[in-house]
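User: Predict the complex.
Assistant: Input components as received:
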Amino acid sequence: MSKEITKSDLWKVFWLSMGIESGCSTTKQEAPGFAQGLIPVIEKVYDDPQDKADAYSRHMELFLTEGRVAFFCVGVAASMEEQYAKAKDFDPDSINAVKVALMGPLAGVGDSLIHGTLRPIMAGLACSLITASGYTSPLGTLLFLLVMTTTVMVVRYFGVFKGYELGLSLVEGMQEGGFLDKLTKYAAIAAFIVCGGFISSLVWCTIPIEFVNGDTVVSLQETFDGLMPNLVPLIYTLIMYWAINKKKINPVLLMVLTMVLGVIGVYAGFLA
Amino acid sequence: MDLLLKAIMVGIIVWIGFLDKAFLHTFIYRPVCIGPLVGLVFGDLKTGLEVGVSIELMFLAVVWVGVAIPPDETLSAGIAAAFACIAGDASVGIATALPLAIVGQMFRQTRNSTIYEVTQRLVEKAAAKADYKGIIVWTSIIPSFIEGLLFGLPAFVAVYFGAEYVQAFIDFVPENVIAGLAAGGGLIGAVGVALLLGTIKNKELWPYFLVGFFFASYLGVNTIGVGIIAVVAVMLNFISDKQKEKNA
């Protein structure tokens, strides 16, 4: 005899899942937080202590995706645990299989949209507002917090509640219609455009080299700007991309080298 | 308020930042929030905002995916903003930001592969006994204090004991080096954008990169404007995909 999961149970799941990234170890990543999120469900749908222990242990397998879209997996897992407790008519390992199938594509979408697109755009806006106020008004900071907090809360709410509501059927539907592939594609389009836009706002340098050509002074910076605005930042970004993705150089090392390049550039007179 | 109390407050702000990363994730851990908070503690909102903005821009596009741990912007912003407020000079904060971020990264890396390996095994033990209280204790409660010990406490120590040394060190560093670090700081955003580009799965869509570059660099469209263009491009693709499905 198992009990139905209610709305208030799902709210408990919502709040307990907040710890998804707490105690995140290298080998199991978000597993402890995932198990914690399912406590209200597992405690309710199973009566036998051994069933509870099996269910908790099931969710101690490695789990890693973007921490906000992860709530969707928690919702789906909650629904599947409830179904399994009711009928025990499918292999409980499939609960983990579904989680594993979801975490890759969801991580791509969550990382690109939340951390790769929305967060930099809002933080960039906050920085411009603060700079425009002459560093006196923290309005930009407050706006940033408001938008980001609302977004992550809404994503989590829909994750738990929709994930639970649709459960398995949704997972099947997503894979059949190629829905996740499409979502990844749209995220890629948005991320590419935003990245292109970042070059001018995030990467900058001034080259103070000038040539004297007869009576006229030719500034190298102006020549480059005439060719293409932000030409040097674009090239530098592409070099970094090549170094990280093709040459597998540690990005932290590249950051340090970039700082060193700045110092050398100022001493040698090719950067200002 | 004397330095002791201020340093304690900085430690608490950094701790709150790390708790935010682990739990609510309201993004208060970002430099653009930590900077002004530290500024308020020192009664110097202006310097706090200036350092917060500079470090935020430095790490704006930095997105690390999967198991990798990025240089830590929270510890960096907290301590660097405090150093800058004590010195009354935002450039002190900007110069110290990257080394501090790398220290934070090392702390996080070590934490995940040692301390949290231990707590995670204790969660597993609790799970095997269906002891849900044990799961909560080792997943949320103990790690919350570990965050304070590993990040809040070092931030306090750095601000309370380190500020005068940092000041002496910065005075000793030639002006050209500070200017050079600022120039390097301008280019460091390239590493972030490169990382972000690396996360994109569908590489064949790269022409969209030029779309964004064109609007921002040639037409001077700001980031919100570029965001709108991104929405338009996604919607156009969505519509054409739908039509393709209809015809198929």
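Residues 132-172 of chain B form the longest helix (41 residues).
Let me know if you want any component modeled separately.
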